[in-house]
Amino acid sequence: MKREEALEIVKKQLTEHRYQHTLGVMETAVTLARKYGADEKRAELAAIFHDYAKFRDKTEMKSIIIEQKMDKELLEYNGELWHAPVGAFLTEKEAGITDSEVLDAIRYHTSGRPNMTILEKIIYLADYIEPGRHFPGVEEVREMANHDLNQALIQAVKNTIVFLLKKNQRIFPLTFLTYNDLVKKED
Ligand code: DGI
Ligand code: FE
Ligand code: FE
Ligand code: FE
């Protein structure tokens, strides 16, 4: 699918602010893909669709998680986690994207997972550091992303966990598994 067509599809699903975020993720993901040797077209497509389901009704997302036999544990955790796996499902169903690497990058963009592909890492990181993001620590991760994809990713996952802990939010187990897996590989 061409970039313009993909953007047209997601624009209808998003607020203007979220659409601008998506454009930022797209540009950042393509830059990272070029730098770290991932497929630039896949990075572009995954970035465009990564938040496709962000504003879906929570009841609809819950039904999809159950009907599609996704991890039911998701339902015990913050609903903000749901748009990633539901987004992968709807990107295939509604937009006809069937590339499993692209769909997995969408599916795991919020939690990560152990043994992430380069494409998955790039989408997670691009989502975190795109130019529209302004939160403490983001500049450090941007700088790290210029040198070392894995180090930058560890820092982004770590910051996310600490941010959630400070808000007394529960951490989805897959988020911890992602962190442990990345740190283990640095030993
Ligand atoms: O959709 P975005 O805002 O661009 O970013 P995202 O998909 O990476 O994250 C969405 C939200 O999910 C964000 O507020 C942080 C939250 N989140 C990520 N991992 C976890 C989590 N929330 C909980 N409760 N537990 C997690 O493990
Ligand atoms: Fe997201
Ligand atoms: Fe996002
Ligand atoms: Fe530098």
TrEMBL record:
Enzyme class: hydrolase
Gene3D superfamilies: Hypothetical protein af1432 (1.10.3210.10)
Keyword hit for Protein transport: no
Gene Ontology MF, one: bis(5'-nucleosyl)-tetraphosphatase (symmetrical) activity
HD domain segment(s): 18-132
Keyword Kinase: no
Top-level taxon of the source organism: Bacteria
Keyword annotations: Hydrolase, Iron, Metal-binding, Nucleotide-binding
EC number: 3.6.1.41
InterPro entries according to UniProt: Diverse_Catalytic_Enzymes (IPR051094), HD/PDEase_dom (IPR003607), HD_domain (IPR006674), HDIG_dom (IPR006675), YqeK (IPR005249)
Reactions catalysed according to its record: P(1),P(4)-bis(5'-adenosyl) tetraphosphate + H2O = 2 ADP + 2 H(+)
PROSITE patterns, per database record: HD
Protein's UniProt name: bis(5'-nucleosyl)-tetraphosphatase (symmetrical)
Species the sequence originates in: Niallia endozanthoxylica
Lineage, top ranks: Bacteria, Bacillati, Bacillota, Bacilli, Bacillales
